[in-house]
Backbone:
């Protein structure tokens, strides 16, 4: 069984791609909705909470782990790989641009922007491309709890920036959950979701674990709107349940 962790419901967007890439695999999703968002927390808190999630899934016999969270990937991936005796796959930050894309926005949480992983990757691969960033404090939480008015207000703050960009990287796994809203906001901009590349990398690294019954466990540390998102993405037969993570 392959474990999948996120700070909340955002990783469900990655889980959807994982299930398409490995339809026979068994997945165990754990979202830390009780302590969401991670993107405004300190690196020490992010590492502590992420390791707790990883160890909890390890105790439930997962044999591989996908970190379906950009903040955890840039802040705690090395720690997870060092502490857990199983393969750990993070979000893929090496994105591919089209030749016509000369100005690219990185949209992410403050913690991900501060780490600079996407910016560094783009600078190394596409030195001539103009990279701009926009930290979106509050957006992941608004999406998490599906506060429509707040989501629309926070997206509107990105309109001017996106109007000057050819592409934008959705550097938080919550953001693709409202992809239609992004596309309506800026139709001429191509929005890049790293989840597809992450699913491909996971299939390559965890291929031997891809054969199972196609079952998925959806667990969260606080129910909140988790059940609604699970229903929207995976249908009425998918059931979310609450679990407790020991501090």
Residues:
């Amino acid at each position: 069984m392959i474990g999948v962790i996120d700070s909340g419901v955002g990783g469900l967007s990655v889980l959807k791609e994982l299930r398409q890439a490995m339809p026979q695999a068994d997945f165990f999703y754990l979202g830390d909705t009780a302590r969401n968002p991670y993107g405004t927390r300190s690196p020490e808190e992010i590492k502590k909470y992420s390791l707790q999630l990883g160890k909890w899934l390890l105790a439930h016999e997962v044999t591989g782990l996908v970190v379906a969270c950009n903040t955890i990937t840039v802040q705690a991936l090395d720690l997870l790989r060092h502490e857990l005796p199983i393969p750990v796959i993070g979000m893929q930050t090496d994105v591919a641009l089209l030749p016509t894309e000369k100005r690219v926005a990185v949209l992410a949480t403050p913690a991900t922007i501060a780490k600079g992983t996407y910016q560094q990757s783009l600078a190394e691969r596409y030195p001539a491309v103009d990279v701009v960033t926009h930290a979106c404090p509050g957006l992941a939480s608004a999406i998490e709890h599906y506060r429509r008015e707040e989501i629309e207000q926070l997206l509107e703050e990105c309109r001017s920036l996106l109007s000057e960009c050819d592409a934008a990287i959705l550097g938080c796994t919550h953001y693709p959950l409202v992809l239609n809203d992004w596309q309506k906001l800026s139709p001429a901009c191509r929005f890049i979701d790293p989840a597809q590349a992450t699913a491909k990398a996971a299939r390559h690294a965890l291929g031997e674990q891809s054969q199972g019954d196609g079952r998925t466990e959806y667990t969260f540390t606080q129910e909140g709107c988790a059940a609604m998102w699970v229903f929207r993405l995976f249908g009425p037969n998918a059931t979310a349940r609450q679990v407790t993570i020991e501090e």
Summary: The CA atoms of residues 139 and 154 lie 6 Å apart. The longest strand covers residues 103-108.
